[in-house]
Amino acid sequence: MINFLEKRNHGQLEAAVCFIYFNHKRQKDQTISGILASLLRQIFETQSRASSIIEEFYNIYSKQNAHYTDGELQGILCRGFATFGKAYIVLDGLDKYSSNYEDKIIQDLLATLLSLGSHVKVMATSRVLSGMEGIFKKLEAKRLEIYARDEDIQLYVKDRVENELFFAMHLIDIIVDKITHAAKSR
């Protein structure tokens, strides 16, 4: 999806594309402040039009050696995104953001991102889990179910299994078939 958005908007100064990949092993490190700062960094590194706004913010806080609040980060991010006609934020693996899927932290993150402006579009990927579905339902979010093709699953699993030395070669095809079949039955 990110590749598609970047290609679709390549060369267009009116669009910003940012993304966050969530990792269940880094839940404690992935705070709202960290996520907002990462989005700011992405805008700054790839989009020169917002750099003066972000640079001004950085200079104020680095000179004072002060820490910024989530609200201040949200404000500067909103100003940065306002320099674009369109902005896309992709959240991949949102269900990995918190181990409690009904957790208020996910709702707070989504509310923060959705408040950045009507031209900012947020897309989140998540496994189908009841808590996550409840969160998306409250937001009245559009939903699209996607499934991996058998060939993609087989290619991915085979690549992962072949890189593990402890598997006997004759077991690889059996493992690939079992995982592909399990993915279909969902």
In brief:
With 186 residues, the chain is mostly helical. The chain has helices at 2-8, 32-46, 51-64, 70-81, 104-114, 130-138, 150-162, 169-184; strands spanning 15-21, 86-92, 120-124.
What is the topology, as strand order, of the major beta sheet? Answer: 1-2-3
Q: So what's the CATH class of the largest domain? A: Alpha Beta
Query: How many β-strand stretches?
Result: 3
Q: What kind of sheet is the major sheet?
A: 3 strands, parallel
Share in helix? 40-55%
Describe what you observe in this structure.
There is one protein chain. By secondary structure, the chain is mostly helical. It folds into two domains: 2-138, P-loop containing nucleotide triphosphate hydrolases (Rossmann fold); 150-184, no CATH class. It contains eight helices and three strands. A three-stranded parallel β-sheet has the order 1-2-3, with helices on both faces. α2 (32-46) packs parallel to α4 (70-81), α3 (51-64) packs antiparallel against α4 (70-81) and α7 runs antiparallel to α8 (169-184).
List descriptors.
mainly alpha; 52% helix; 3-stranded parallel sheet; 186 residues; Rossmann fold; 2 domains
